[in-house]
Write a structure and sequence with these properties.
This protein has 327 residues and is an all-alpha fold. Helices cover 81% and strands 0% of the residues.
């Protein structure tokens, strides 16, 4: 009887793990999370050793969903279950980047990069692109560009390696952000379109939404507001479909900016009111600053100076908390 029960349990775990991986690959992130939770709970119930690969995959899914509290809990569980690893350091770095704790994010990302094996090109690229993003978030565009260029150089030697499409998307998206910030919109569009093509070819819906968001930003800076809104609405649709709450908040904020510039103040406020709870629940404090500032400008335009001042102060307080480079 015990053997029979154990056999059934092993089959159930195999089914759950395969279903979780398939859902994750298809960007059905909430479904993937449910399967990973069921598999891990069954393991615990049967007193089997913790499957670290499943828990790491759960962290990746939670990162996309923007569930920062549960993500931190899973990372703590990994920390207590292993002596540490490159992947764990990288995932801590990604977590701290997402909640705008840039000193810790940089520390973990650099630690992960230091322990990369010379032949582990994919991990090197992931660490370099994370460092590039951290630097970009703080307005350090020169060092950010250097990290992305180093990642691109690594990517050039991976033609025969499988599974680098996601890394290619991250690199070209990062370069597009820097070129956009420098006002080189043609280079920015070229890099963003490369990211879009790579994400479409690899069915990377999250990367596709990010590339569309960057193209929307370029269109915004070029004052092509209708095009910016069109790109951003496509990104928003994808993010809602895959359960990317963090990305959904970003798209809503960007739509609010475009609507504000078109003087469509009601639509701008609706987008911001929808975005703010998502920004708070996903702990995206860096973007909370911009959202509060925009809401303050919106109130100012509508003549409500008291409400405008209140929102600007909230944004300033958040900027002080995270020592943002701008806010």
């Amino acid at each position: 009887e015990h053997y029979s029960l154990a056999n059934i349990t092993d089959k159930s775990l195999l089914y759950l793990s395969k279903a979780a991986a398939k859902a994750q690959h298809s960007a059905a992130n909430q479904i993937a999370l449910n399967y990973y939770n069921r598999a891990l709970q069954l393991q615990q119930k049967m007193r089997q050793p913790l499957n670290l690969d499943w828990l790491h995959s759960k962290v990746e899914v939670l990162h996309i969903l923007g569930n920062r509290e549960e993500q931190a809990q899973a990372l703590q569980r990994l920390r207590s279950s292993t002596e540490g690893s490159l992947l764990l350091d990288y995932q801590w770095g990604a977590y701290y980047q997402a909640i705008s704790d840039y000193p810790r994010a940089r520390s973990f990302a650099k630690k992960a990069l230091r322990i990369c094996q010379k032949d582990d090109i994919v991990s090197q690229i992931r660490c370099l692109t994370l460092l590039g993003l951290i630097e970009w978030r703080q307005g350090r565009f020169t060092s950010s560009l250097r990290y992305y260029q180093d990642a691109l150089a690594c990517l050039a030697g991976t033609e025969r390696l499988a599974g680098v499409a996601s890394e290619s998307v991250q690199i070209h998206s990062g370069l597009a952000l820097i070129y956009r910030q420098r006002g080189d919109y043609e280079k920015a569009k070229q890099s963003a379109n490369q990211a879009l093509i790579a994400s479409e070819q690899s069915n990377n819906r999250s990367g596709e939404a990010e590339a569309l968001t960057i193209l929307a930003g370029i269109a915004f800076y070029e004052r092509k507001l209708d095009l910016a809104i069109s790109y951003q609405q496509k990104a928003l649709q994808i993010r809602r479909m895959i359960g990317d709450w963090s990305g959904e908040a970003t798209s809503l904020c960007n739509l609010a900016n475009a609507f504000f510039e078109k003087k469509s103040y009601q639509q701008a406020e609706l987008s911001l009111r929808e975005a703010l709870p998502l920004l708070e629940s996903t702990q995206k404090r860096w973007e909370q600053i911009n959202a509060r500032n925009l809401l303050g400008l919106l109130h100012y335009q509508l003549g409500d100076l008291s409400a405008a001042k209140q929102e600007i102060i909230k944004g300033w307080q958040t900027a002080q908390q995270i020592k943002a480079a701008s806010g």
